[in-house]
Amino acid sequence: MAALYEGYTLCGLVPTQNPPESGIQGIELDRDDDRVLVTDSTRSVTVYKVSDQKPLGSWTVKQGQFISCPAVYNSQTKEYVAVTNDNVIRVWKTEDVNIDQAFKATVSAEIYRVHSVPDYEPVVLFRRGGVRYLDSLLTAPQQPIEEVLLEDEVIRWSTMVRTEQQLLVLFSSEQRGKHFLYVQRFSPNTLVKHQLEAGPHLSAPLSYAATFREEHIHLLYWFPNGSVYESVLPARHPAPAAAEEVQALPRSLLLQLPIGEGELRSASALPLDEAHVAVVGVSHPSAGTGKDYLCLWNTHFQTLQASRELAGKIYGQVWCYYGKLFVTHGKTLSVIPFECQKSSLAAALGKLKQTRTNGNCRSSLVPSWNTLPHGDKPGKSRGVTTRRTVRRAHTLRTNMRDAICTHSGPVEEVEQKVEMFLIGAEQAEQQLAVGRLVCELVARCRAEPSFYPRVSLLQLADTRYLCHSVCPGLLTLALEKKDFRLCQVCLQLFPDIPEAITCACLKVILGIPDAELECVALEPDSLHLMKALTQGPVPSNDDGGEHNGFCPAPLEEDGGGSTAPDAKVTPAPLDTSDRGTKPCKDLPAIYMDCPVGLHKGALLNEVLQTAYSDSLLLPYLKDLTVTQVILFLQYLQFLYLKYSQDVLPQIQALRMPAVTQIMEWVCLLLDAHFTVLVLAPEAKHLLSGLHKFVKSQVKLFSELGKIEGSLQVLKNSKQSHQTGQYSIEVVELF
Amino acid sequence: MGEFTVHRVRFFHYMPSAVRALAFQPQRQKIAVARTDGSLEILNRADHLFQEKVIPGREQRGTEALAWAGQRLFSAGLNGELVEYDMQELREKYRLDASGGPVWTLTCNPQGTRLAVGCEDGTVKLFEVCDDGIQFERNLAKQKGRILSLSWHPSGSRLVAGMAGVIWVFDAGTGQSVHRLLVERGTGAPRSKECVVWSVVCLSDGTIVSGDSSGNVKVWDGDTGTLIRNHQVTKWDVLALSVSQDETSLVAGTSEGTVVQFQHLSVVLGREDKEWVQTRTFKNHTHDVRAVLELDTAVVSGGMDTQLVVRPLLDKIDVKTSASALRKIHFPHRRLVSCSRTARLLLFQHRIHLELWRLGESEGTGDSLPIKRKPEKLLHLKTKGEEHICCSALSPCGGWVVVSTVTNLRLYRLQCDETISITKVSKLPKVVSSANQICFSSDSSYLFTASTCSSVHVLALSQSGCTFVCTLKPKSCKRTYNWPEFLVSASRTVGHCVLDLVIVCVQAYCTVPVYSSGVTAMSINPATNNLFMVHADQQIFEFSLEQKQYTDWSRLVHRKGLHPQWLERDTPVTNVTFSPRNPAHVILHDMYMFCIIDQTLPLPERNSQLVNQLTLRSLPEKERRAHSHAFKICKTFKELLFVELLEDQSLVVIERPLLDITAQLPPPVRQKKFAT
Questions:
Q1: Is the ipTM of this complex over 0.85?
Q2: CB nearest A730 (choices: B367, B616, B617)
Q3: Full-prediction pTM beyond 0.90?
Q4: Interface contact B5-A730, CB threshold 8 A
């Protein structure tokens, strides 16, 4: 799940002489996450405060000079660095009014770009491939710079990536239709050259992007036919021998975007996290061509997550800093905040199941692909509130969320804030925020054993925006804290609980004494079901003998099934009085008491209804102790007996385990603990009772099978009504 | 069109016999089918699997194996004799005792020069195929026990023989055994029960594949004699094996009624080393599959349930057409029933006897009429000798019955007024000794028999007896006879690639233009003297005998093309007849429908509904005219053997439900089904 929020304009674009250029050379980070450094294509550098859409300062070079690469902020020295006229490095501070009076140094070769990341020394990349640290260059500006690239090779793109220990400069070059990627590592300085695979229909890549995660550099590059490829490079130093020759770079197709007819000209792709890519310059698959969109794609599931139509011409420029996308289009530079949730299949699909079982009690939470591209939020508030207030409300809520996360106050305050947050937020926004919030709260609970916002967690779980993949720690935390209400809610609502956790739940529930559970407030509906089950058969005003012709007599006598119908003619009152007075042998087999308390039963019912795969569940089931297994089997037998009686139609519960679920659990339990149950003396009575009842059922079903066969014959014979050897019929032809 | 009273007859208890062996002739695309009653059928695969030729069987002659040697067809059976068939005359050419006891198997080497025969006494006998017969060449080393299956190595140098519990590999040059492969009985089988190798196949790389009674298909290395692979296909027997020409696919028929396909595939993609992998299972039979053929694009199988199934291998077929659909052949592609229109009599042809029935009568109205008089079986006429009936006919007046076997033709005079009397006409002309096709002229005054040498004999019938008139030979000199009507006889013995018709008419003699597909049914309309023909590819032609050219209607049909649904039907039309009242009405039928063609109505449009009777029924009277077209198809009656229109405009429909045939089959092997 990912969403784009309401965007706003940071600044207008200066019209340029050559139209395909946007007028902006680059956007770089300034000292904090709310300030950016915008370099336009001619002569000026401006610092903006993003949330206020306000420029804080601006510097312009003299007429006749031009800024040749985007200015960067050097966080080491708190200075700005820019390059003018390709080979003059300018360094100035915020207090400097005039850039021309600031420090400047002329170097001996043309500079391609200066790269800077926070907490590291900026790096200067020269046109011919040489790389120097800024400080070492400034100490000797006229030092000779080596030529790395060949005669007709030119740099197309470059970036700097910060890994765990070191910096890397990556740049790509083109030479007569061949594309190469250089990886420059420092201390020791090594340069590795890779050749990009050339496909039959692939021309030059449109855009590149590189990110570092999980000890590898992920390079993303995009071809004009809409295919986005990914290549993975090791971040560590390669074997030294490999540095000499050109290595081929293997690639894999990450995403194939629908582009309609023709090829893309100006477009750009930017990875946001491991599963999401922001794409600008491609039309929405369901919208017509000619319109340009900013789209968020999920590369795991190849789905479009969010999109926004952009007015005006697209320049194919997009930057991303601190959860905000900076896009140039038309005559404006827009800032669009976004949010990406951890991508999980259950978040997208698992809710289908929930909405089905819950019927109409809640509207569908599955994001509809049709509504997303056009309106990211329900439009009801848009009419009244202006754009700015919406944005302000959003930032307010974001702040509130962050406040809750970072808040270190007592439980009550947190609970209050969570409630506030839930009241204010809208649906799509909640869906994204709730998962993160719960994760933060769970993390805090783990850190501080005394902290446990019981009410808040329940409220958050009750929003139904959660699934186990989004907040993996919640259910285990609830188990540890013995918060069975939360457990119940999670078991009900999470479609993707792993089998290990299900079994852990089962173990805890079976192990806890009934008395302790009785004080827990569980969902009333589940308790109602348990009450109805434990009330036992109502000695109702039955005047027609046994219900549904159910006859307990043949249970005991194996061969005596045929005599049973005769015995059934006995009047009904006698039968009921029998049940009451005489402890008939076979009655206990059918009317057994509930072996567990109401609350425990209700929780066990929830476990029975969770989704599982039996081969995965089986190994975890083996962890249960003998007493737990026997208790659980007894409970399952109790349920099975109840279901076989006529109490079932009288119970009106929203959720109750199906008889097939019960049978499958019985089978699984017997399977997992076969030898244990055979050896345990206390299980013997239980097993023999179960066997007796199953045997009677099998007998019943085999009789039903016979009836089915003869009914089938009757039905067939009715279809072919004419079986005689000869008949005279009348047929009319038209 | 109106209402028809339909006599729905189900008392013709026709029972086909089980398929025992199959053989394929790749050059001419012919499939030979041997049935357990000794009869032989030749199907043309190139011509919509039309059953071109039928050679009737005889009692006490069970065929066990079939083999083509070039264009020549040989069979062998448990009576210990080898038989070569005459494909022109549709009879046995000669028979030869193999003198080794019952013969279980017979194969011809790929070169078509030698026949190998596996006998009860444990010998494999080699016969040389000469121009005028076969000549005993030698015995291979004698073994203990019967030889049940044989296969030649494609080079013809080796011969593999399957027996009970063992497979022998012989050198065909020296006659000595090279290898002995022991076939173990399956696990759990009783010790007394030996594993019988029902079928072996030898591939060109020396691999030997065997199918045995313990349900295994075993792959052996023929050079070392080691077992490479064992596939347990069934719990019961694997009865038949067949390999494709390029040796990439192999099929096995089992007692369960399944046909299992194996393919020679590389287990790892892109690797060279290939293995035989079990890929698909087809279940189209209820009983034992006794014979299979792998024909590259299709699998043909037949067995105890008497049907022949042609199952397409869809991965080998590029364009899916009606010709590449699954086909099941249940009934013979010829008439087994003849009908007297005026006397309301039916003559049923069984294997060795004829049955004559009189139709019942009814009164009253309604959908299903009450029967006033039940149908009556008048006669049960058994033939003498061992040979099965080849063809039979009942004259339109109901006064004559003629029946022919391969060697003998008998004509009977029939009188059935109050009492039934039948007298054999004693003095038949000597030339008329047998016939492949028989028909009467429509006034029952002449009898035409098509017999050997593509000649047609003409006999005149009268109260006193019959006299020989003449013999017609194709492409012979012109003779004119003053007959009241035309006679057409398709000389089936000439071969159906060339359709050669002999037509004798009042003044002229002419030949209908040749068409590539065989004629399945044809008839002359007595009112218009037009010859109406239906071919195996479902095309319809009408030829005017007076003008010696196709009629305008026929030209219209071919200019416009027949409806696609009509062309997609997979059973041939087996009878054409005309309405006695309205000469423009032609009645035809195949196995699943009968159709009345009204030649005055427009032809159906290509995109319109062909079977539109239900639609028309629902329309009001006025609109029906606009929607109706020439083909009036009725699908109420299924599994039809015969349809005829009587004098009084009532229809006779003879059905033989497949369920009734299945009910008479022996019980299949017992299979455990779930929940029984």
A1: no
A2: B367
A3: no
A4: yes
